[in-house]
């Protein structure tokens, strides 16, 4: 026999549909809590909570949680129910007596101050405003194209002198980030797009810093050496991502850095050692090393597309390289 029980108390109603609704609530709570849950009412409807309390006490159950299914703290709550136990505080176990028997009671607060209740009511009201008002687009391609057209317009407003290709690359980066503030933070060196397109046309491999970037690129020659980089990282005292770049960048490859500033720094170092790098796309985020590494890349003269500042992320790098791949697949590129 459990030592606790839950009694739901409603105001009560003579309407059967009300009782049916509340029975469903009681069943739900009993299944979730795995303790006996009794539905009761303050007036109009049986069973009355007073009778259930008496029955439970007679069965030896003297710890009762009263779940008050009232919206606000009216007289029924304060006077009729809690007053019967000389209790004034919610959500605390209190010792009391009822009909001469000792009992411990716990009263839940009424529902009006619950954010979940407010939210549920909001959504139900909101349907009256939203019904028939919004023309939702469900086709994924149409959603993407509408969004891209909106971003293209914003890019053209802010940077009116861009070429078509530059606008598309920036728009894709903004699309991936969902942040229009990035429009003037994506740097494209003068030769970056043309060199990148030519490199893709001759099927040059793409080397990535992390597997997440590798997984998102729509190209049949994408390389990542992170799994093989542990030993070299220990030997040289560098990060695994930097070591993976050193393993992979022994011949010209497009490099896409979406996450690791140290991998980007290694690309610049390897380029200074004599390995040609036709294009670097660099969007690593962060407050340490990221800004400095990206600015060093711009100064290096390597053809590059760079998201400056602390902004960044793998998805942005992936979206930019995929845009170049998309261009190559079109006629005329």
TrEMBL record:
Domain Cobalamin biosynthesis precorrin-8X methylmutase CobH/CbiC: 142-327
InterPro entries reported in the protein's UniProt record: CbiX-like, Cbl_synth_CobH/CbiC, CobH/CbiC_sf
Pathway: Cofactor biosynthesis; adenosylcobalamin biosynthesis
Alphabetized Gene3D superfamilies for the sequence: 3.40.50.1400, Cobalamin biosynthesis CobH/CbiC, precorrin-8X methylmutase
GO molecular function: lyase activity; metal ion binding; precorrin-8X methylmutase activity
Organism: Sulfurisphaera javensis
Protein name in the entry: Precorrin-8X methylmutase
Pfam families: CbiC, CbiX
């Amino acid at each position: 026999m459990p030592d606790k029980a839950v009694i739901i108390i409603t105001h009560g109603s003579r309407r059967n549909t009300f009782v049916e609704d509340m029975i469903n609530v009681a069943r739900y709570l009993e299944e979730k809590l795995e303790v006996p849950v009794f539905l009761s009412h303050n007036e109009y409807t049986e069973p009355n909570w007073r009778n259930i309390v008496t029955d439970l006490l007679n069965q030896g159950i003297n710890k009762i949680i009263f779940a008050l299914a009232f919206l606000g703290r009216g007289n029924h709550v304060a006077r009729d129910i809690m007053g019967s136990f000389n209790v004034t505080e919610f959500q605390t176990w209190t010792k009391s007596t009822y009909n001469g028997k000792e009992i411990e009671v716990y009263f839940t607060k009424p529902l009006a101050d619950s954010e979940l209740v407010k939210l549920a009511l909001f959504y139900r009201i909101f349907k009256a405003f939203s019904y028939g008002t919004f023309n939702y687009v469900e086709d994924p391609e149409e959603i993407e194209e509408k969004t891209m057209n909106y971003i293209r317009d914003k890019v053209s407003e802010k940077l009116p002198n861009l070429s078509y290709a530059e606008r598309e690359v920036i728009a894709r980066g903004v699309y991936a980030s969902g942040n229009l503030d990035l429009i003037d933070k994506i740097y494209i060196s003068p030769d970056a797009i043309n060199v990148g397109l030519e490199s893709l046309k001759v099927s040059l491999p793409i080397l990535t810093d992390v597997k997440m970037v590798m997984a998102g690129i729509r190209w049949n020659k994408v390389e990542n050496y992170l799994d093989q980089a542990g030993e070299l990282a220990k030997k040289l005292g560098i990060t695994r991502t930097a070591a993976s770049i050193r393993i992979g960048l022994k011949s010209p490859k497009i490099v896409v850095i979406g996450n690791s500033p140290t991998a980007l720094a290694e690309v610049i170092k390897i380029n200074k050692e004599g390995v040609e790098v036709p294009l670097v796309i660099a969007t690593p985020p962060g407050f340490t090393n990221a800004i400095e590494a990206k600015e060093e890349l711009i100064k290096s003269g390597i053809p590059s597309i760079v998201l400056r500042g602390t902004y960044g992320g793998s998805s942005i790098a992936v979206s930019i390289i995929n845009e170049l791949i998309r261009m190559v697949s079109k006629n005329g590129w």
